[in-house]
Structures
1.
Amino acid sequence: MKITEVKVQSFRHPSPDEWGRSFGRTLDICVVTVSTDDGIQGHAMGRAQGGASGSILGQEILSVAGPAIIGEDPLDRERIWQKLWNMVRRTRLTVFAQSCIDVALWDIAGKALNLPVYKLIGGCRDKVPAYASSAAHDRIETFTEEALICKARGFRGYKLHTHGNPEQDIKVCRALRKAVGDGYPLMIDVSGAYDRRGAMWAGRRLEELDFYWYEEPLPDFDIEGYAELCRALDIPIVAGEVVPGNVYLTAEFQARKATDILRADVYWKGGITGVMKIAHLAEAFGMKLEIHHAASSLMNWANLHCLGGFQNGDFLEVLIPAEPLQFGLQQYIQVDGEGLVHLPKGPGLGVDIDWSYVNSHTTFQG
């Protein structure tokens, strides 16, 4: 089996109001399709990064990454991953292009062998706990009301995204703990907004509130600052979500003891292959790898397959409200009443693209 064609198609979806600060006014998504001479196609999605103006990601895949893999055996995923990783290093190919190609290749492999991807990885579990992940709301009451709804629905935890003011953020955290009660897992994601002094102060308060983890309190490259937090605080620190360097810089965070829990997803870390490298690195050092939402519904299915293939991760992250972010597919991740997400049984990623929706919202094709 050989790769014969790589195509991209970008489409636009209005950004939900709750996530407008993070995503902008619209969500421009690029569907990547890798075709083979056996007639099997694999798919992935990424942020189009340009939409109607030309899809930067799409152009990069069409002009650089795609031509590099034509004629390759799609089952040689590690070979292709290393080839593209060298291009990330040497020619500044973005990791997003590598990630999309890799996920599409795993989709092909599963379809060729009539197995779900997580079984190819090496099935570890067929259901995974999920936590609810909030937008950065303006009102404390919005957080507390949402957290109570999520708890009642069965979510195994609730994470808030904040505006980056330590004192104001801790006020929200106190209200959340009072609302949901003791023992329910609460997390906070600061998105790198604190300085070292503010991060240390907030960390002490979060320990008093028994938060489950403390995510990205410092800027991404402040490795020494993260190491100081890990030494001083008992609450687990989570870092490394969007830093470049893939598994290799992740290893540096681990070696410097600059995080207690590693963070990755298939979009930011080189696809399923990249995430599994990090998962195994974390396991070897007795660490957790917690999966970050992967920028689109399809890529979050790929995240779920990764979680089905390793045991040292507690949760799947589910952005809420989920419904406004569900577009472009025919099946979406569902959380049952026990807070669990079940792995799909179909071959490959196990989900189908809603081509009717994609075609009617297309902004770029090549």
2.
Amino acid sequence: MTKLSPPDPPSDPTQVQPEWLDWHLTENGLISGVKVTSVHCEPMGGSVGFLSRMARLVPQYSGSVPENLHSLILKMGTTRPHFQEVADRLHVFDREVGFYKHIAPTVTTRLAKLFASDPAGGSGWMLLEDLCFLEKGDQIHGLSNAQVSMTLQHMGEIHAANWSQSSLNNFDWLPEDSFWFKEELSSAWDEFRKHYELRLGRAAIAMMEQVLERIKKLDDAIAMRPRTLVHGDLRADNLLLGKPGSNDEVLILDWQTATRSMGAVDVALLIGGSDPPAERSGHYNELFDGWYETLLAQGVANYHHQEAINDLQLGMLSALRIPIKVFRDFGGPNFRNAREAQLADVLTFRHVNAAIDFDAIQALS
């Protein structure tokens, strides 16, 4: 019998036809003997998801189905021109689908379930478990130290499970040191500096200039460090937060920027981007040490404490490109909306303050 081809995917996650959803749920063995009769689509995300669009799907079926199919999340590629170009360049759906298929089954930390997908060369779609009963993290509001600590524990378990694993080299969807903020940004520096120099101060501006001038040395240093599976965009907007002490206390989402690199980059991204300086004050060492001790407890050997601190400093310096890139990509200083202007500000001040608080510049000396 000739296998029927799937219906064409929707052009928008809010325009899903029952036939398309029915085909993929049936093909993946999720439903049998019942049909999808209608689909209600609820848009999600607003300006939070820059590399993708999402909708919550609530299907109606001709019979009973498992509870976890009562609603689903459909994630598709962005249509914003610049961000679409970034998504295509980074092959973000290849990375995220690859993560859920090859890495997620090997780790113990709680993750969303992937039901069906088509990476389509990097700009495809994914049907995921609906976890909307959990609170969405908010980058502007930030995270508490307890939430940062728990996230780093979960991420540390994933880092440890993949630490220096040669098997990661077998995944063609998983590039090395490929970060969304790793771009040539010197042309955007003058406008960024003009906008922020009085608020950041001369010392901070001088530190950022030094990083830009020595960016190759910084990237080369990171490339020499032990490699693991790195999230690459670990921040509040990519977390779901549940009841403290539950299995759903922290769920890490959005693995579109997964890469092989130095694990401390994720620590730098989370502490620097999502932990407000006032909340983080006095807790620098305990946040870092919680991640480091998780690595040791999970079997990572020959990774000394001072090495890990140096790696964190390298990661924080690398992350200083984020404020410049976000400012440029959001059209600063003429931002498209208030949230993007706020996001540019919080990422700038948090990452710069973190690099200063951790004396990160000494890693380039």
3.
Amino acid sequence: MKALITGATGFLGGALTRRLHGMGWDVTAIGRNAAKLGQLESEGMRVLQHDLKDKSAMLAACKNQEIVFHCAALPSPWGNFEAFYQANVIGTRNVIRGCEEHKVKRLVYVSTPSLYFGYSSRVNVKETDALPEPVSNYAATKILAEQELDEAFARGLATIAIRPRALFGPGDTVIFPRLIPRLQSGRLPILGDGENIVDLTYIENVVDALLLCAESPANTLGKKYNISNGEPVKIWKLVERICAELNLQPPKRKISYSTANAAATVLEALYTLIPTHPEPPLTRISVSMMAHSTTLDISAARNELGYQPKVSVDEGVGLFLNWWKERN
């Protein structure tokens, strides 16, 4: 099988690229990180250093491909709308055009459950639940990107999408690697009552979901599927485990959600005044994510795709911590 993978130098795209290559697929990897592309090339994969905003390059990249996995995105709770729009909407549109022009058999798209986020606890969220107003430029542009996908499906392109929640595991650069330095500083308080639950998803389980999407039956096309480990955990209990294994003092001091949210609001206003608009050390989104409960209903993925998480959160955290300790 010939496959093109965008975002191949990212966490998920890289894991998918290596899995497919190991399975004997003919893989072409697209990314912007030259060093990581070089590593993939040294492992025997074909690589292209393309910008998804380059329409002609993306059209050419899709030629002779059977399936395209569109994993690339600009994911951040903070940043300029135009940058998100170009990466997430225009980039997706160019991938779609390439698939249509070269009659790619299927486009598998990686969306996000950030679409469900609304500064409050939400549990067992279904794909069909009403979406709140987007609270970030990332969420807003991913909604627009999904609309591009819907329009392509209506035109006849075979599409399918997943919304994977909070990816973690060896190679993670976002969730735990951003949390651990704050724990090491000793300045991270417990936000909220400390009892909130969240869904996480081990990286290889998400790769499994993408492979299922590549060969799923016709009745799944045009749909989006929630993906998680399906085993919500108390986030602050997990923080305690991380601290214990890394010999760190766990947070003890509690700050109410309203107090932390007020502080984040002030910081966001101040950082907006800085010409370069850097991300504040505390944002309303990050406060809400650490203080509220967020879980997904993955029954559709289980029933229609045959998705079954193989690596538990407990096992996955252990694998991540072993990887982290080897490198730090």
4.
Amino acid sequence: MAEVVQVQKRDGSLGTAASRRLRKTGSVPAVLYGHKQENQHLAISQKTVESILRHHSRIVELQGDVVETAMVSDLQFDPLGIEVLHIDLQRVDMNEKVTVTVPIRFKGEPIGGKQGGIVIENAHEVEVECPVVAIPDFVELNVTSVGLGEHRSASDVKLPENVVLVTPGETVVYHVEKVKGEEVDETEEEGEEA
């Protein structure tokens, strides 16, 4: 379910100085764009922005001066990565398909890690296409069976219904590397090959 976000239209003054003044009043500047409509410059309260971050909201229902369904497409943070300086919102139709980036949640402990291998997470997210109403919070990859010298690709990620992988399937997202210079027990290696 989309989070309801109260928005106000910003007056004609735009730019860095106007944005700074707006933030001093406890609001965050935002822009709403898409669907071949004119861009709308908005203000959202800091508390609402914190709620969006806390709930990892992707789809929001805008209320107030503008009534639209939108996707949070980008958040710009200060150099310390603490304060949100600006939000980009993209108009969406709840029936349309969108391409979004979602985090990968690795599940399990790999066999190769228990055998002394070095676990490397090559990617922490994948790009997927799905209906707006079906955007997953994360996708899962079970890594329990990954042995020494083995890897898992983006195509191994478990996707929910109506979600299609956009990231090339052969992209390596996880692997267990053999430690260089260390002898690996041959019986373990033979067990892996069988």
